[in-house]
Specification:
Helix content: 40-55%
Distance between the termini: 73 Å
Order of helices and strands: HEEEEEEEEEHHHHHHHHHEEEE
Number of helices: 10
Number of domains: 2
Radius of gyration: 26 Å
Structural class: alpha+beta
Strand order of the largest sheet: 2-9-8-4-5
Oligomer: single chain
Length: 461
């Protein structure tokens, strides 16, 4: 491939990436996880008559499947309701109650998908004809979405193998210069691209099942992000297969679209739109290069283990890249952690605990990387291979924690627990789509709850 041809190919990839970024930029901006502003019937409120419908109003547009609202009686039996529909530009969901409800206490369970693609849910109680007796059972918004977390681990692993495989291939070609007889192990970049593509398609299927609509893939940001990621992995795979070895570095361009998409859907982007996406994108790219390049380097080193000189050059080339990658992962990860998790929540929330496990994995991998770097200088190939294999295992745990964190609401989006009160809740006013106001009385206590998008729930005693 001539220099002119490479320049033209590079410009074509740049145009493609710009188009994908523009597609993401045209999507509605992410704001935060869906927060229930108020409901009808209201939570912990007794109504004088059976409601004709269940209606929930959120702080942002949500996507809901036909069974997003479920009503249970006091015995836990499902009460028939109509299919869930959206209203108020997607900010409200409602389901008709065709049969008259008898006297008693009922629970409403809801489940919706936010603009970032995360599944959220909760439940509340109301009563017909009598007050809600006894303290309300503690309920917690849906935490980690485990099916999404497992598939996202495959997505991150695929992205790591694809990005890192391309970079490691470049390092290996330089290390084998003048040694044409060295074997060429199977490249991991196309395997990673295919793995990522399968993971994105699976996420798309789960998303369509959750929302009950195929059109949700192109009518909202969460769906558009999935489409862009699928295009990035697919084009990346085709590019690797079609381009000559000297031009395969251009495969990084479509894969960069996947990195951009992950930044757009990230929790950091909801907390700090714009630069939060940039922060996450840089962090994801650096982490992927660390994991993927190391894995490909180890595979190549095992194939070349009978030739110590090129293996030494291979590890030296990787070590130069790894130093900068590690510094980037640590710095961007630290800023993102401080942005999403207050210090007080590091040990008191699920998100904080998962983050601590991830930090432990990064620390373990860093220690192993430093040991391997030392053994590279001493030309102890066997010790380097052992250390790097264990390092890969530690980084696999880091990737798993990253996938779990991306499928878990951050600590900043989890509402604080309200004081335990025994009085009946009375809904005294609402501003449709903006603020819900309820009042509850307890012994020597009067609590006014203001539910709003940025502050979730404020308690005024």
């Amino acid at each position: 491939m001539t220099r002119t041809t490479r320049r033209r190919t590079g410009r074509a990839w740049a145009v493609l990436l710009a188009a994908l970024v523009a597609l993401l930029a045209g999507a509605p901006p992410a704001i935060a996880h869906p927060t229930l502003l108020f409901s009808d019937p209201a939570a912990e409120v007794a109504t004088g008559d059976s409601p004709g419908a269940i209606t929930l109003v959120f702080n942002e547009a949500v996507t809901a499947g036909p069974d997003a609202l479920v009503v249970l009686d006091s015995a836990g039996k499902v009460v028939p309701v109509g299919p869930t529909a959206t209203a108020r530009a997607g900010r409200a969901i409602t389901a008709a109650v065709p049969e008259r409800l008898g006297l008693g206490v009922y629970r409403v369970r809801w489940q919706v998908t936010g603009s970032d693609g995360d599944l959220m849910g909760d439940e509340y109680r109301f009563a017909v004809g009598s007050g809600v007796l006894g303290a309300a059972e503690a309920t917690t918004a849906t935490g980690t979405s485990w099916p999404d977390a497992v598939v996202r681990w495959l997505l991150f692993a695929g992205l790591a193998l694809a990005l890192g495989g391309v970079v490691a291939d470049l390092i290996a070609r330089r290390a084998r210069e003048g040694r044409p007889g060295l074997p060429s192990p199977h490249p991991l970049a196309p395997v990673g691209a295919l793995t990522g593509l399968v993971a994105v398609v699976t996420l798309g299927v789960l998303f369509v099942v959750q929302t009950g609509s195929l059109a949700s893939l192109w009518n909202g940001q969460a769906g558009i992000v999935l489409l862009v990621e699928a295009a990035g992995f697919g084009v990346g795979y085709v590019a690797w297969r079609l381009l000559r070895a000297s031009a395969r570095i251009l495969t990084l361009v479509p894969l960069a679209a996947v990195v951009v998409a992950e930044g757009v859907r990230s929790h950091a982007n909801t907390a700090a739109p714009g630069w939060g996406a940039l922060l996450t994108g840089v962090h994801v790219a650096a982490a992927a290069l660390w994991v993927g390049a190391l894995t490909q380097v180890v595979v190549i080193a095992l194939a070349w283990r009978s030739s110590r000189a090129p293996v030494h050059l291979l590890y030296l080339g990787y070590a130069r890249v790894a130093a900068w990658v590690f510094a980037t992962v640590v710095s961007t990860g630290a800023v993102s952690a401080l942005l999403l998790v207050p210090f007080a929540a590091w040990t008191g929330t699920r998100y904080g605990l998962l983050l601590l496990v991830k930090l432990g994995g990064v620390a373990a991998a860093a220690v192993l990387a430093l040991g391997a770097r030392r053994w590279v200088r001493r030309r102890n190939t066997r010790a380097v291979l052992v250390a790097t294999r264990v390092e890969i295992a530690a980084l696999a745990v880091v990737l798993a924690m990253s996938a779990t964190l991306s499928s878990t609401p951050p600590a900043s989006s989890q509402p604080a627990a309200a004081p335990v009160l025994g009085g009946q809740v009375v809904q005294v006013g609402t501003m449709a789509g903006q603020i819900g106001v309820t009042v509850q009385a307890g012994e020597q206590t009067l609590v006014v709850r203001l539910t709003s998008p940025p502050n979730r729930r404020l308690l005024l005693g």
